[in-house]
C-alpha cells in the first residue's frame, strides 16, 4: 500500500476555499489492488508452499482489507465503506459462480465421452458392465412428459381463463388463486405420493404405472401453466375485448379468437418452461413409475424408465460395475440438461418472436 | 360453429349455449384444481392414517410413528436452514451485482444465465454433489475437524464427504438461482427516483442501496428466502444422492453419522417398502407437506403484507 504517495498529486492545493472535488483514488485502483493482492498471495504461497485454496483465500483477504484501507486514507471513511461493500458483493458473485460453473463443466466433461450412437439407441436389457444405452429412458421421459403436458395444458389454460375472464376477483377465483399458490409449493415427492395413493386405491397395492407419473407431474405443472397464462391474459388490452363485443361476437368466441391468439406467444413460453421444469423431476417418478431396463412405451402397463430416475438408480446401485454405471449417469445427465436447456432457449425464442403482439 | 353467423333470428340463444359450454369448461377446470389439491391432502391422509398405530418392525424398528418421523424432520429442517444460511447472503450479493453493480450490457446475460441454471434438474445437482463436491470437500472437513473440532458442529471425525453439510451446500447451490431471481426482480422495482434522490444528496452507491433499495425490498427478500426454504425442505434427489444417512439426531455437521431428511428417506426406502411401511412413509410425506405448506404460506403472507404497505 505504498501507493499512498500519489496523494500530493491528486489533492490540488485549493487556496483558502474548499476544493470542489474531494480527493479520489484513481479509477484503476480496484484492478491494481486485485493484481497486487494476488501477486503478494502467490509469492507467499510459493515461498511457504501453500495450496491453491489458501493462496486464493489470502489474496481475497488482502484485497478486502487493502483496498478499503487505501481508500480510507485518501477518500475518507464513507467511500472506503462503499469500496468494501463493492468488493464483498462482487466476491459473493464470484463465489456463487464457482459451484455453478463447476457443475456445468463436470456435466459436459464427463458426459460427452459417453455419448455415442449406441448410447442413444440401445436400452439396458441384459447389460451389466460397459455398453448399453438410454434409449428406453429417453423414450420414457418423452412419453410421460408428453402425457403430463396433455393433461396440464387444457386444465391450466382453462383455469386461467376462468380466473381472468369469468371469475374476476369473486370468491371462487380468489380461492383458486390461493390454491394455485399452495400447489406451486408442493414438494415434488409429495406429488408422487399423492399419485401413488390414488393409484393404489384404484389398482391395489404395489402399483407402478407411467400414467401415474404423468398425473404426479401434472400436479406440479398445472400451477406453472396457470400462473404463466394468467399473467399473459392480464396483458391483453381491454379494448380488444370491447371491440369484439361491440361487433356482436359472443364472449367465448372473443376469448378463443381474440384473447388467446393475442396472448399465444406468452402462453407457449410459459408452457415450454413448465415442460422443462417437470422433464427433470425425479422424485415423483421414482415413487410411482419406478424404473426398468427395457423399452416400455405403454404408460398403462407397468414400470417405465425415465432419464432422471435412470441417473439416480445408476449412481445409487453401486456394486461391481459402479464406474460404468456412473459414466452412463453422466452421459444421461448431459442429455437431460441438453433437453432442458433446449426447451428453455426455445421458450425464450418463442416469447421474443411473439412479444410484439402483446406489446401494444 | 358457423351457427353464430347464420342463425340471425335467434343470435342470443345460440351464443348463450356456446358461452355456457365454454364458461362451464373454464369453471370446471378451476374446480378441478381445487379438487386436485383437496385430493392430495385427502389421499395422503387416507393412506397415512394407518401408520399412526404402527410400531416395531412396521415403523422401521421404532416404538411409534413420532419417534420415527421426528429425527427425519430434524434432519430436514437442519439441512434446509444451513442451506438458507449459505444461500441467502450469496443470493443477495449476486442479485445486487445483476441489478445495481454490473454494467447493463453484462447484467442482462448474467440474469439470463442464472435463470438457465435454475432450470438444471435436481438429479443433476445430486450427481454433481455426490461425484464431484463430496470428494473435493473432504480435505476441508478434515481441516475443520482438526482446527475447529471444539465446536459441536465440527466434532468429526471427517471420514466421508457425504455429510449433512455437503447436502446443505448442494441445496444452497440449488436454491441460489431461485432466491437470486426473486431478489433481482424486487431490487429492480425500487423507484428510480428514490435512488437518484439519494445519489443526488451525495450518497455513495452502498449508502444509496442501504437507504433506498433495502427498505423497499425487505418484504420481497424475506418472502424469496421463505420460498427458497420451502424448496429446500421438499428437495429430494440431491439429498438422497449426496447424504450417507444413518437417521440419528446430531448437530455434528461433518461426521459420517448423519440425520436423514424426510424426502430423501422416502425416495431411498419406498422401492423396498411394503405393507404398513408404505403408510409410514406416506405419513412422513404428509408431515413434509404440512411443514412446507406452512413455510410457503408464511412467505406469501409476508410478500402480500409488504405489497399493501408499499
TrEMBL record, chain A:
Keyword Protease among record annotations: no
Transport among keywords: yes
Cell compartment(s), UniProt: Cell membrane
Transmembrane segments: 27-46, 52-72, 84-105, 134-164, 176-203, 209-226, 258-276, 329-347
Protein name stated in the entry: Phosphate transport system permease protein PstA
Organism from which the protein derives: Nocardioides abyssi
PANTHER family per the UniProt record, alphabetical: PHOSPHATE TRANSPORT SYSTEM PERMEASE PROTEIN PSTA
Free-text function comment from the UniProt entry: Part of the binding-protein-dependent transport system for phosphate; probably responsible for the translocation of the substrate across the membrane.
Pfam family, one: BPD_transp_1
Domain spans labelled ABC transmembrane type-1: 138-347
CDD domains: TM_PBP2
Family: Belongs to the binding-protein-dependent transport system permease family. CysTW subfamily.
Membrane topology: Multi-pass membrane protein
Entry keywords, A to Z: Cell membrane, Membrane, Phosphate transport, Transmembrane, Transmembrane helix, Transport
Automatic annotation (TrEMBL), chain B:
Membrane association type: Multi-pass membrane protein
Keyword Membrane: yes
ABC transmembrane type-1 domain sequence ranges: 73-299
Domain of life, per lineage: Bacteria
Statement: the UniProt record of this protein carries the keyword Cell membrane: yes
NCBIfam families according to UniProt: phosphate_pstC (TIGR02138)
Family under the similarity heading: Belongs to the binding-protein-dependent transport system permease family. CysTW subfamily.
Name of the protein in its database record: Phosphate transport system permease protein
InterPro entries xref list: MetI-like, MetI-like_sf, Phosphate_PstC, Phosphate_Transport_Permease
Lineage of the species this protein comes from: Bacteria, Bacillati, Actinomycetota, Actinomycetes, Propionibacteriales
Keywords associated with the record: Cell membrane, Membrane, Phosphate transport, Transmembrane, Transmembrane helix, Transport
TM region(s), chain numbering: 21-45, 65-98, 110-143, 163-183, 213-233, 278-299
Protein source organism: Nocardioides abyssi
Gene3D superfamilies: MetI-like (1.10.3720.10)
Function: Part of the binding-protein-dependent transport system for phosphate; probably responsible for the translocation of the substrate across the membrane.
Compartments, as annotated in UniProt: Cell membrane
Extent of the signal sequence: none
Amino acid at each position: 500500500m505504498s501507493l499512498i504517495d500519489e496523494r500530493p498529486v491528486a489533492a490540488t492545493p485549493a487556496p483558502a476555499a474548499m476544493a470542489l472535488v474531494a480527493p479520489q483514488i484513481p479509477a484503476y485502483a480496484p484492478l491494481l489492488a486485485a493484481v497486487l493482492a494476488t501477486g503478494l498471495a502467490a509469492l507467499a504461497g510459493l515461498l511457504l508452499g501453500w495450496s491453491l485454496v489458501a493462496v486464493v483465500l489470502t489474496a481475497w483477504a488482502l484485497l478486502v482489507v487493502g483496498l478499503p484501507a487505501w481508500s480510507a486514507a485518501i477518500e475518507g471513511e464513507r467511500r472506503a465503506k462503499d469500496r468494501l461493500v463493492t468488493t464483498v458483493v462482487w466476491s459473493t458473485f464470484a463465489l456463487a459462480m464457482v459451484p455453478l460453473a463447476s457443475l456445468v463443466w463436470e456435466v459436459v466433461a464427463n458426459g460427452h465421452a459417453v455419448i455415442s450412437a449406441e448410447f442413444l439407441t440401445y436400452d439396458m436389457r441384459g447389460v451389466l458392465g460397459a455398453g448399453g444405452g438410454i434409449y428406453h429412458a429417453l423414450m420414457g421421459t418423452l412419453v410421460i412428459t408428453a402425457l403430463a403436458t396433455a393433461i396440464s395444458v387444457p386444465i391450466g389454460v382453462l383455469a386461467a381463463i376462468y380466473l381472468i375472464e369469468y371469475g374476476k376477483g369473486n370468491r371462487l377465483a380468489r380461492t383458486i388463486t390461493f390454491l394455485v399458490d399452495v400447489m406451486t409449493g408442493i414438494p415434488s415427492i409429495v406429488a408422487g405420493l399423492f399419485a401413488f395413493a390414488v393409484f393404489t386405491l384404484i389398482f391395489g397395492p404395489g402399483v407402478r404405472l407411467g400414467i401415474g407419473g404423468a398425473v404426479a407431474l401434472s400436479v406440479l405443472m398445472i400451477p406453472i401453466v396457470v400462473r404463466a397464462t394468467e399473467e399473459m391474459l392480464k396483458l391483453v388490452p381491454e379494448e380488444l375485448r370491447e371491440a369484439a363485443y361491440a361487433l356482436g361476437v359472443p364472449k367465448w368466441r372473443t376469448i378463443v379468437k381474440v384473447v388467446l391468439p393475442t396472448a399465444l406467444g406468452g402462453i407457449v413460453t410459459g408452457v415450454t418452461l413448465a415442460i422443462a421444469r417437470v422433464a427433470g423431476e425425479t422424485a415423483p417418478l421414482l415413487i410411482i413409475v419406478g424404473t426398468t431396463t427395457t423399452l416400455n412405451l405403454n404408460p398403462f402397463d407397468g414400470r417405465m424408465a425415465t432419464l432422471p430416475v435412470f441417473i439416480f438408480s445408476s449412481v445409487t446401485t453401486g456394486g461391481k460395475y459402479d464406474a460404468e454405471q456412473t459414466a452412463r449417469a453422466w452421459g444421461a445427465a448431459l442429455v437431460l440438461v441438453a433437453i432442458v436447456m433446449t426447451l428453455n432457449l426455445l421458450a425464450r425464442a418463442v416469447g421474443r418472436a411473439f412479444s410484439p403482439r402483446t406489446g401494444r | 360453429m358457423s351457427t353464430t353467423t347464420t342463425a340471425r333470428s335467434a343470435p342470443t340463444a345460440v351464443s348463450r349455449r356456446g358461452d355456457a359450454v365454454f364458461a362451464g369448461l373454464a369453471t370446471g377446470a378451476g374446480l378441478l384444481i381445487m379438487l386436485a389439491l383437496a385430493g392430495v391432502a385427502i389421499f395422503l391422509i387416507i393412506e397415512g392414517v394407518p401408520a399412526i398405530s404402527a410400531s416395531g418392525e412396521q415403523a422401521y424398528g421404532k416404538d411409534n410413528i413420532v419417534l420415527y418421523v421426528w429425527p427425519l424432520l430434524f434432519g430436514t429442517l437442519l439441512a434446509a436452514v444451513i442451506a438458507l444460511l449459505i444461500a441467502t447472503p450469496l443470493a443477495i450479493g449476486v442479485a445486487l451485482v445483476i441489478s445495481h453493480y454490473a454494467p447493463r450490457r453484462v447484467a442482462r446475460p448474467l440474469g439470463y444465465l442464472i435463470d438457465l441454471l435454475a432450470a438444471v434438474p435436481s438429479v443433476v445437482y445430486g450427481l454433481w454433489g455426490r461425484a464431484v463436491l463430496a470428494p473435493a470437500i473432504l480435505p476441508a472437513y478434515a481441516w475443520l475437524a482438526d482446527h475447529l473440532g471444539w465446536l459441536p458442529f465440527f466434532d468429526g471425525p471427517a471420514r466421508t464427504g457425504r455429510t449433512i453439510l455437503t447436502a446443505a451446500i448442494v441445496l444452497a447451490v440449488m436454491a441460489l438461482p431461485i432466491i437470486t431471481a426473486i431478489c433481482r426482480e424486487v431490487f429492480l422495482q425500487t423507484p428510480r427516483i428514490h435512488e437518484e434522490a439519494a445519489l443526488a444528496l451525495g450518497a455513495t452507491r452502498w449508502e444509496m442501496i442501504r437507504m433506498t433499495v433495502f427498505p423497499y425490498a425487505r418484504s420481497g427478500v424475506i418472502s424469496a428466502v421463505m420460498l427458497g426454504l420451502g424448496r429446500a425442505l421438499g428437495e429430494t434427489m440431491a439429498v438422497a444422492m449426496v447424504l450417507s444417512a444413518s437417521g440419528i439426531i446430531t448437530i455434528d455437521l461433518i461426521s459420517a453419522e448423519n440425520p436423514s431428511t424426510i424426502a430423501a428417506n422416502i425416495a431411498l426406502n419406498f422401492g423396498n417398502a411394503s405393507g404398513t411401511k408404505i403408510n409410514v412413509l406416506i405419513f412422513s410425506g404428509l408431515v413434509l407437506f404440512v411443514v412446507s405448506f406452512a413455510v410457503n404460506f408464511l412467505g406469501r403472507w409476508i410478500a402480500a403484507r409488504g405489497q399493501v404497505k408499499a
